[in-house]
Write a structure and sequence with these properties.
Layout (H helix, E strand, L loop, with lengths): L3 H41 L3 H8 L2 H8 L7 H32 L4 E4 L2 E4 L4 E5 L4 E4 L2 E3 L4 H15 L6 H18 L8 E2 H11 L3 H5 L11 H14 L9 E6 L5 E4 L5 E10 L1
Antiparallel strand pairs: 1-2, 2-3, 3-4, 4-5, 6-9, 7-9, 8-9
Helix pairs in contact: 1-2, 2-4, 4-5, 6-7, 6-9
Length: about 280
């Protein structure tokens, strides 16, 4: 005789197997209904960005192929055409407005939508659907051209509009490199990890007061973006190396690398640095 508890467990398992496909079908239909309702709400707000994103998704195709929703396929297709036209119209106007504002702000902007570049090391991505613009990995929750230009100007001021002497920069970098070799009893010309050099260089910028009291308010920040731009500006200046006659060599790789700008103006993962005669 089958144990009562065992019997009941078997019945639960079998009934669960029976109802599972039915429940999955119900859940699928509910997701489709919710999707159509979301399209209706977006259309009511004339949110063509959201409509464009929704109607280009896999769910839209599934809804159009669903037997019970076939009649709505034509309306979804019409909305898709409308949203696509509105987004394209906005995109063209957006680029024109951005270019006009950039000229007024004297920013040499290049737009390859959705990508934006203002000088080497200042890059952005515009995401209409999410209503955001990412500039140098920082998110601006807006696609307003005025706010984007304001943010780009701020980054330009931080990276470019400050005192900079390429010779002083490369000489200081060389000094830090030479000090690392000295501490590690290594020969001049040997490669040093880029991450190590960056850390030591940032520490070399700190004041004596900072090392006596390492409060964050005393710390002099020096971002990786700033470092990348300073290296690029050094290459552009064509100073011909350090005052001691050494030339810098950046070596690409992926192991403990930093994203920097090389002599060709390309962002690359740089693993090591060396100074050689």
């Amino acid at each position: 005789m089958v144990d009562r508890e065992e019997f009941l467990e078997q019945m639960q398992e079998k009934l669960t197997d029976v109802v599972r496909p039915y429940q999955q079908q119900q859940n699928r239909r509910q997701r489709m209904a919710d999707f159509v309702k979301q399209c209706i709400r977006s259309a009511g707000r004339n949110d063509f960005f959201q409509l464009d994103e929704l109607l280009k998704s896999k769910m839209a195709r599934d809804v159009e192929e669903e037997v019970g929703l076939k009649e709505g396929a034509e309306f979804l297709d019409q909305l898709r055409t409308y949203a696509d036209e509105q987004v394209e119209r906005y995109r063209i106007q957006f680029i024109e407005d951005l270019a006009t504002l950039a000229r007024e702000a004297e920013l040499p902007i290049e737009v390859d939508f959705p990508r934006i570049e203002v000088l080497k090391g200042i890059e952005g991505d515009v995401d209409f659907a999410q209503r955001k613009t990412v500039i140098n990995k920082k998110t601006l929750k807006s696609v307003d051209p005025k706010r984007i230009i304001t943010a780009l100007r701020r980054v330009k001021q931080q990276l470019y509009d400050r005192p900079y002497d390429p010779q002083v920069f490369i000489d200081k970098l060389y000094d830090v490199y030479a000090e690392i070799l000295k501490k590690e009893d290594r020969e001049m010309g040997e490669p040093v990890a880029m991450q190590q050099l960056y850390l030591e260089y940032v520490l070399s910028l700190q004041s004596r007061a900072f090392f006596q009291d390492m409060d964050k308010g005393r710390f002099r920040g020096y971002s990786l973006d700033q470092f990348a731009v300073d290296i690029w500006r050094y290459f552009q200046a064509g100073t011909g190396g350090t005052s001691e006659g050494y030339a810098v060599q950046l070596r690409p790789g992926r192991n403990k690398a930093l994203w920097l700008i090389d002599s060709d103006g390309e962002r690359r993962q740089i693993t090591t640095i060396a100074f050689q005669e």
